[in-house]
TrEMBL record, chain A:
Residues 144-375 form the ABC transmembrane type-1 domain. Keywords: Cell membrane, Membrane, Phosphate transport, Transmembrane, Transmembrane helix, Transport. This is Phosphate transport system permease protein PstA. Its main location: membrane. NCBIfam families: 3a0107s02c (TIGR00974). The keyword Ribosomal protein does not apply. CDD domains: TM_PBP2. GO terms for molecular function: phosphate transmembrane transporter activity. The gene is pstA. It comes from the Bacteria. GO terms for biological process: phosphate ion transmembrane transport. It comes from Brachybacterium ginsengisoli. It is a multi-pass membrane protein. Part of the binding-protein-dependent transport system for phosphate; probably responsible for the translocation of the substrate across the membrane. One of its GO terms (cellular component) is plasma membrane.
Automatic annotation (TrEMBL), chain B:
Belongs to the binding-protein-dependent transport system permease family. CysTW subfamily. One of its GO terms (cellular component) is plasma membrane. This is Phosphate transport system permease protein. Keywords: Cell membrane, Membrane, Phosphate transport, Transmembrane, Transmembrane helix, Transport. One of its GO terms (molecular function) is phosphate transmembrane transporter activity. The keyword Ribosomal protein does not apply. Part of the binding-protein-dependent transport system for phosphate; probably responsible for the translocation of the substrate across the membrane. The gene is pstC. It holds the Pfam family BPD_transp_1. It comes from Brachybacterium ginsengisoli. It comes from the Bacteria. GO terms for biological process: phosphate ion transport. The chain crosses the membrane at residues 29-52, 81-107, 119-143, 174-193, 290-313.
Length: 388, 320
């Protein structure tokens, strides 16, 4: 403070002692005041609850924090403080639904997975054949296999096309007609990014209905084609971005050594960008693995295992969740339900469909998380060590 | 491997195009694979456009507008759906954009450096939560929780057309669908905006701070102007996802077909995507064709929005 008083410039609008910054813990003081006033006020109008106290308390904190800072620090720092509070508030507002979603999925889903009726974890080792009414049994093995197979095939189709398109855009589309083509491709990839998933589903459905004149045809590969329509633009975008980050010096050094262009791309450009490419591709996979709408239209639903991508309907986790959710509460006429195929007897539970939906959602989220962790590990171990 | 060994011996060779025929074969194969993939993108999109158009022709030809005799009208069928889709997405974006910018700023400029990467990773992870799980969570957990808020808005702000009408439980209304859509697009908008904010030239920020600017003044004068194009692009990306999002709307909204602005009333709206998903299983013939027509409308809608977004980004880009 004293150092500021020694040389006040013409540009400084405020008096020097306005330029002081209070430590952060003054926020706690104003925050507690806001919360207490909110609780008192809400208790008077008889609307006190944890949610309302937090919301009103935060709004009051905005006001108190701003006024307090205005008095002690001056208008510029008061504005800064207000924005800090708003930004923290935005983060809290976003974290609340996101954490509650994860919590609900883990709480309800994990419970169902662990307490699966015939045996522990049988939710992951059995399918839905013969599970009728409110039978408190059944599992998602068939749907998990379906999801993994369809996503695998979608990746087999999309990754080469997407990667080569990105290579084309970065390495080849630099002059003449290729440059024109490159501009067009960039534009079309933008358009493809905007294709709604349901439209991709309609496309997959129609291609195969046209190829084999049977309006009721449903196969796993149809879903994979529909998903790859959504996956290709993501792969192209992410890969292109990563390839462009590779310094031109590296390519020029390689050319100077006489290495041909394709080897330069494989050994220098792709090698340098491998971490980013892996992350981008994994994000693309994670995006399509949870897609539901295209699969609703193209692969249908089935209650038992189907390993064949080219014949018959397939169950997938997302469509399974949707189906169980829409089935809603089950009817329990008696205490037990008999499996018409195996003649096993299960207890009847009204909430069995919803429970299975949560458990399947938990399974799907676990798969997505594993994918993300794998991507992290790969990018950690394979990225070039630039710092050495 | 053998080629690299040769390279090392003959280091000062002329540019690659003049070297041995073996390399030229490798080059031409690689080059044609790349160009072929680019062309394949053209073909795929052409196939999508051709298919959507041809498959929707039966409905267009049979409709009231063209034949003059049929009992169904394209406009009357599609327009309420378009209205519902745009309204739901618009409200979702109104909720999501300010919050997303806040989170992005928090992670990039306010959070302690050690926490920032963890928080960013969390948002990345949440961008990967499948839409059907958001739908499940919204339909079962969130809708009952929102009831008090809706009754509050309806009672005290009922004079605003949006909140007018007579809401009743369960609140499977457009507002609930929009809230879930907002939660869904939030991680995407945040992730893109955060990336842009982090790319702000470090020297400019430090210059602003050195001139005595507060953190907010630095953000207002350096970070936000630099990231303007990114914010618009991120919002449009979010809008694209919200417009085409099927599951959240399908699993939460009780469908209707009106032009009502009353987002709290149940059974008034529906979106194009949810309508297709719920009816495609039983539809065939002209009905299916009608659904494909609405799909085409959705496709064109998202295309126009993407085009506008690109235009804005291209216009605001060079200034930063």
């Amino acid at each position: 403070m004293s150092s500021m008083t020694s040389a006040p410039t013409e540009a400084s609008v405020h008096r020097p002692h306005d330029e002081r910054r209070l430590p952060w813990y003054h926020l706690i003081f104003t925050g507690l005041t806001g919360l207490l006033v909110a609780i008192a006020g809400l208790a008077i109008v008889d609307a006190l609850s944890i949610a309302s106290a937090i919301v009103v308390g935060f709004l009051l904190h905005l006001l108190f924090g701003w006024v307090y800072s205005l008095v002690r620090e001056g208008p510029r720092w008061a504005m800064d403080r207000l924005v800090t509070l708003l930004v923290i508030g935005a983060f809290a507002v976003a974290m609340f639904p996101l954490l509650s979603l994860l919590w609900e999925v883990i709480r309800r889903g994990l419970t169902r997975v662990l307490a699966a009726k015939p045996s522990v974890l049988s939710f992951w080792t059995s399918d839905m054949s013969g599970i009728i009414g409110g039978a408190d049994a059944g599992g998602v093995l068939h749907a998990t296999v379906g999801t993994l197979l369809i996503t695998l095939w979608a990746s087999i189709i999309s990754i080469p096309i997407g990667l080569f398109t990105a290579i084309f855009l970065v390495e080849y589309a630099d002059q003449g007609w290729k440059k024109t083509l490159g501009t067009g491709v960039t534009f079309l990839v933008d358009v493809m990014t905007g294709i709604p998933s349901i439209v991709a589903g309609l496309f997959g459905l129609a291609v195969f209905i046209t190829l084999m004149p049977d309006a009721s045809v449903r196969m796993g590969i149809m879903g994979a084609v529909a998903l790859s329509l959504l996956m290709i633009p993501t792969v192209v975008r992410n890969s292109e971005e990563m390839l462009r980050l590779v310094p031109m010096d590296l390519r020029e050094a390689s050319y100077a050594l006489g290495v041909p262009k394709w080897l330069t791309i494989v050994k220098v450009v792709l090698r340098t960008a491998i971490a980013g490419l892996t992350t981008g591709i994994t994000l693309a996979i994670a995006r399509v693995i949870g897609e539901t709408a295209p699969l609703l239209l193209t692969v249908g639903m089935v209650t038992s295992m189907n390993w064949n991508m080219f014949d018959g309907r397939m169950a997938t986790l997302p469509t399974f969740i949707n189906q169980q959710y829409r089935a809603g509460s089950a009817n329990c006429m008696s205490d037990s339900v008999t499996n018409p195929i195996t003649h096993e007897v299960y207890a009847c539970s009204i909430s069995t469909n919803i429970d299975r939906a949560w458990a399947a959602a938990f399974t799907l989220i676990v798969i997505v998380m594993v994918l993300n962790i794998v991507a992290r590990l790969i990018s950690h171990y394979f990225s070039p060590k630039l710092s050495r | 491997m053998s080629t690299t060994d040769i390279e090392q011996e003959s280091a000062p060779t002329p540019p690659p195009s003049m070297s041995s025929s073996r390399r030229r074969i490798g080059d031409s194969v690689f080059s044609s694979l790349s160009v072929g993939s680019g062309l394949l993108i053209f073909l795929t999109l052409a196939a999508v456009a051709i298919f959507l158009t041809t498959e929707s022709m039966p409905a267009v030809i049979a409709s009231q507008e063209f034949s003059g005799t049929a009992d169904f009208s394209l406009v009357k069928y599609a327009l309420p759906l378009v209205f519902g889709t745009v309204l739901a997405s618009g409200i979702a974006l109104l909720i999501a954009i300010p919050i997303s910018i806040g989170i992005a700023l928090f992670i990039s400029h306010f959070a302690p450096r050690r926490l920032a990467s963890g928080l960013g990773y969390m948002i990345d992870l949440l961008a990967a939560v499948p839409s059907v799980v958001y739908g499940l969570w919204g339909g079962i957990w969130l809708v009952p929780k929102l009831e008090p808020l809706y009754f509050f808005l309806n009672t005290y702000f009922g004079w605003i057309p949006l909140f007018a009408g007579e809401p009743h439980a369960p609140m499977r209304n457009l507002a609930s669908a929009s809230v879930v859509l907002a939660v869904m697009v939030l991680p995407i908008i945040t992730a893109v905006t955060r990336e842009v904010f982090l790319q702000t030239p470090r020297l400019q920020e430090e210059a602003a701070l050195a001139l005595g600017a507060t953190r907010w003044e630095t953000i207002r004068t350096v970070v936000l102007p630099f990231g303007r194009g990114g914010i618009v692009a991120a919002s449009m990306l979010g809008l694209g996802r919200a417009l085409g999002e099927t599951m959240a709307v399908l699993m939460i909204l009780a469908p209707g077909a009106t032009f009502s602005l009353r987002i709290l009333e149940v059974g008034q709206h529906n979106s194009i995507a949810a309508n297709i998903a719920s009816k495609s299983a039983e539809a065939s013939g002209v009905d299916m064709s009608l659904l494909v027509f609405t799909g085409l409308v959705l496709f064109v809608l998202t295309f126009i929005i993407n085009a506008i977004a690109r235009w804005i980004v291209a216009r605001s880009g060079p200034k930063s």
